[in-house]
Amino acid sequence: MLSVKNISKCFGDLEVLKGISFDIHKGEKIAILGPSGSGKSTILRCINQLETYDSGEIDYMGKSVDSGQALHQLRQHIGMVFQRFNVFTHMSVLQNVIEAPVHVKKVPKQEAVTRAKELLKMVGLEGREDAMAKNLSGGQQQRVAIARAMAMDPEVILFDEPTSALDPELVGEVLNVIRKVAAEGVSMVIVTHEMNFAREVADRILFMEDGVIVEDASPEEFFEHPKNERIRQFIRKVEER
């Protein structure tokens, strides 16, 4: 479905991505793990074309997204959920969810409202449609952001550390929602430090360090039979937190 081919990216003299390559298949759940500064969030932003890359290629459904039509398709079918929610705080919960389907995909408003209410029920916000987003807790705002991404019926959703900005007691509610999204069959790429969640949900684990993919393995292989001491050290440190 989506191919990342030899992507490199520099910020000034700092080489953040050093030839990253991997494929995302239909329905696949990939967790990207690694220390801070390893390039995890940058690769997500490159996939979604929020960040330009210096070299390499990203293909969607067999076509390079460098071409206008393929890029348009990519943006129609890939959703992203950010660390800092990025909801429209001046809008209601319902307005947040219907905004893109109505104005980007030209879905009839009533159809968009019906779908939005289904999604808000799924993320545990039934009855909060008219609440202003700015009055919600961080966990609630993140659940709105997930519903908003799902409203575009994406083929792939990218999650960039979706729980890192939340108070600890709110992390579980957002992870439960992401579990529901995973059960819908949507392909997912999730950057996270939640080890147990990654082990439970992911089909594959990519471990990044210093701008390269050090390991690409099943959760069982990664957690039970790590191939080098650096990965063992990372798992121990994160699980001790």
From TrEMBL:
GO CC terms in record: plasma membrane
Membrane topology summary: Peripheral membrane protein
Keywords assigned by UniProt, alphabetized: ATP-binding, Cell membrane, Membrane, Nucleotide-binding, Transport
Predominant location category: membrane
InterPro entries found in the cross-reference section: AAA+_ATPase, ABC_ATPase_HisP-typ, ABC_transporter-like_ATP-bd, ABC_transporter-like_CS, MetN_ABC_transporter-like, P-loop_NTPase
GO molecular function (one): ATP binding
Entry keyword annotation includes Transmembrane: no
Intracellular or extracellular location(s): Cell membrane
Positions of the ABC transporter domain: 2-235
Family annotation (PROSITE patterns): ABC_TRANSPORTER_1, ABC_TRANSPORTER_2
UniProt-recorded name of the protein: Amino acid ABC transporter ATP-binding protein
Lineage of the organism: Bacteria, Bacillati, Bacillota, Clostridia, Lachnospirales
